[in-house]
Fold:
Amino acid sequence: MGDVLAGFHAVWGFESDSVLIRYERGIRTPKLFQALGERRIPLAAVEEVTLTPGRRGTVVLRLRPRPGADPLVEAADGQLKEGSDPYRLVLPAERETLAEYYADELKGLLTASGPAERYLVAAPEAPLQFKAYDGKASFDGTSVQFRWSWTGASSAKWKAGDQSFAVAGLSGVEWRSPELFEGHLRLLSRDPGAGRSVQPDQDPASVVFGLGYGPVHESLPFAAAVLAAVRSRGPAPVAPAVSRRDPAGVAERIRHLGELHRAGLITDEEFAAKKAELLAEL
Structure:
């Protein structure tokens, strides 16, 4: 079609095989939109187009993606608030006729429905990182790193030490919005023996959110990028990569272990074993 339709917070460009969504920047634009910047949605990834009345003299043009077509939507798992839905374009009511025209044009171009066999919408690109309540998460495209915060991490995570997870050893991710109770990001292992019964604050494969930590616009694109990388890998898992530690970090870790030991939170044997493990990784 080659035309554009400007609404609140975004501009949609209509092409013969896709919709290019460019999100605006500004204090009123949802931070998730600003973080996404721009997204190309192939029409093959769209199952339905709707136009409905909005609030306060507006109309809403919305695309409904096919299940499994977009890693961001799959990672969100229905937890996004309506105003943060990247597939909604809100327009003034006076543009309803124009919006209806584009909605009809798009409907005529849709050819697929049902679950998609692979992701059709590109995931956010690595490297990505965000700060959780109990640590810092980073993703370089091949592995996920969790580096624990000495002020927020549980003793169980301190005992386990900083974590590195190769993408090929993962089966997926579990994202629980920081805007909901017990928000967290958990990495799911391909090992069938690795269950999810442990609470996220005690699980070294999870980071927990909190007020100001792991916000949606940082943690959700992160989760989507990891999920897309996992799904693009082959079926054979590999052992998690082991990274060598920085000497200053090891010293800080041993000092904190000593504090846990003096407080009676870990035994003499646990302290000695973990100290030896950390020193061996230098």
